[in-house]
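Q: I'm writing up a methods section and want to include an example of the input and output format. Could you take the sequence below and give the corresponding predicted structure tokens, formatted cleanly so I can copy it straight into the document?
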Amino acid sequence: MMKTDKDMENFLPGLKPVLEMLEREPERVDMVYVRKGRSGAESDRLLDLCREYGVRFCLVNEDTLARMAARAGHQGVVARLREASFMPWESFLMQAAHAPLPLIVALDQVQDPGNVGTLARTLYAMGGAGLVLPRHNSAFLGPGARRSAAGALERLPVTQVVNLSRAVQEARDAGFVTCAAQKVEDSVNPLTEKLPLPALLVLGNEEKGVRPGVLKHCDCSLCIPFRRDFDSLNVAQAGAILISCFARAPEA
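A: Here is the clean output for your methods example:
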């Protein structure tokens, strides 16, 4: 599939431009792609900066770099930039309780950009406080996510945290009831039970669910009951139902 001009805006080719971006605005860099076998002082500096700022990097072949850089010279290095503008976690948490629907949705390593975009669209429409994403192993908020969000990602508060488990605990300390979407013996039925607000809802990875380290900071588990024998809903569908359940709940 041919890349559009909008897709290409997310890639920054060239060793020196990428070095400068890592030195000035490392938070804008989602991933750095380096040609296999590339060496030298500047290459070492590049990888050192990636490690220092927790920026992911990947060794790839020349063909991969050429596709990402299109006609631009890449000098063996291409960076993928983040499109989303992230709010600092402290500011995000401070304003979250004042949203029309004081519900934070935290995505624990959700990988599909379309799912993230759809959740952002639903949460924004329902008045939610915003999305929390872990810095590592989250979907890239590029054109795919933005198409699904239909403008919501430009309006909804979105924050990124290094340690999602700690963020959930801090939200709990700030007075948010913390809930995880998972099926366990004592799961709460969100269709029949009153759900408290303000709250933080954790939605897990499409295959692995919510990680144990995050679960330990959750006050309760929510599970949508099925009336037919069926495997599961995807994270965007389940999230939309749960957000709606919180939206009908009276404020605590």
